[in-house]
Write the structure tokens for this entry.
Amino acid sequence: MVIVLSRQITPGVLTDPLGPRFFPTALGAAILLCGLLLTVAELLFRGEPALPAPLSDSSPEGEEDAGPFSPSRFVGAIAATAFYVAAFEPLGYLLATPPYIAVILLIHGGAKKRALLIAPFLSTIALYVTFRFGLLIPVPDGPLEGLLPW
Amino acid sequence: MSFIEQLAAGFASALDGYGILIMAAGVTWGIIGGAIPGISGAVAMALALPFTYGLDAPTALVMLAGVWAGANYGGSIPAILMRMPGTPASAACLFDGYELARQGRAAKALGISLICGTIGGLISILVLIALVLPLGEIVVRFGSPEVCALALFGLTLIAGLSGPSFLKGIASGFFGLLLTTVGLDTLTGSMRFTFGSADLLTGIDTISVMIGLFAVSEMFFLIAHPARPSGTLVGTASTEFPTLRELREVGRATLVGTIVGLVVGIMPGAGATASSFVAYNEARRWSKRPELFGKGSLEGVAAPETANNAVQGGDLVPTLALGIPGSNSAAIILAALILHGIMPGPFLLTKNPELVYTLFAGLIIVNLLMIPVGILILRLTLIAMKLDPPVLIASLLSLIVIGTYAGDLFVLNPIQALVFGVIGYGMRIWGFSAAATVLGIVLGMLAESELRRSLIISHGDWTIFITRPISATLIFLTFCVLVYPVLMTVLRHWRSRRVPAAPAAK
């Protein structure tokens, strides 16, 4: 797909020996080649461990303590975050954030009842104050704009 | 200006205005973030990026340097007190750290970790300064072909080292390079992969992508794979400095840790985790009392903690001299430069010397600040460690959304962070390297433009890359790095087939 899309790039007025298509096309081809090699390697060396990196700092953290994968939690967290991002500007930060935090707490589970009631509001206010008054960043207020004293 | 004058100007710039407070805030967040399992140094730095929007470039850099230094120490707190490393790099410290805590010497273990970590960090910064300046003078002679070859070599080396599979690492790096092609082509003005959207003309937002790949993916991982209950706290919430006799006792281990940390740090892609384990083993080998290792040896805490702090200086050698980030944390330092309109690369030292000297000064200050801040906020760190994980995750996700939005007040940024969070999660699950992708993004900006500039200079003649000695050497090294793992895999496969055949022949 990358290669096909790269071929559709229209060259600009100015030109250079390679042009704007070359790099993405070459990268698309390189990724395709890696994919093919990975498939071949999987078929040839099935069951054998991959060649380990000689010295690697990329071992994901806490992997050994991680519990089993929960698809519902994963999909729920993505959906909730997507809704939150979509509602962020129209509803404003103060109205959109507490329900989002509460939903994430419910999806994750294990939060104490008191935390479920207090944390969404405390966390929202703390972040709002930090960004709005600490970093002077105009956080969207949504329908509350004009109603707030600042 | 002489070296001393430039360094003095660096100190003045780092301490300008609220500089010291901002650095202390960086160290504080670093220690707390590092102590919370799930938030590694790089994640803590990624989460701190939004707070640098309002700062100038030097202040932003020294703040992030503070987070980095703080996280190196912070990770050892739960390792010592709860047998639960806060960061992967602090795992080597728990063997003896937790044993000391069980013997009622937790405060001493924390003191050793803090003091030896600071010593390791400070020595590594001095070595960094000593190495970067001469390297910078060599790099000045680089032209476009050399810079392009350097970017290729750096990417190959890092992609090869930073993932569980070489091929997946390389593919991840290419993916990062590909991401940099989105937007308006700077040489010809052509639109690439914008899909008709004016919002994508300026390309993808590097900061949002980094936050997505490092931080959002981590939060999704913590939600989708709820961790088992954490360990229980052993020991008291205090820090006890080592006596002179104890410092002499751990001197050899501290030296070993510093050397290992520096050497491993200079190798791009290796990093703090590898260095702390190597340092632990080497310290045991060189120790006068190796039998105490694993039973509560002070040397067993000193060596890995010194090493993982010494990595910082080593990591920054290729980052500042060549523009090749040595680790995720170093890549975030480069991202902060991009955020403030400064193009990272091999000419950083020559084009922005004041910035580099401010970073040198800031690194020295934050390492010194670690001692008072580390002692003062220990109790606060323990409270943070006990926070309800779901509350922490939900609050951090909200911080990420507001933080990425705050950069340009543009809702596309949190969308990108979310998308790359999902991609980052997938990469982690399927063994691809998010770190290589990020490094591809950082190096991709250089690689394409310098490749095309080289060919403009040579009128389309590709031999320009192999007729100039430095670029030819770098291309040869790139080829070696690419071929080596393939040869090793084939050789290992061939050997594994021969070994079972031997008894049959008998």
Notes: Chain B has one domain: 3-463.
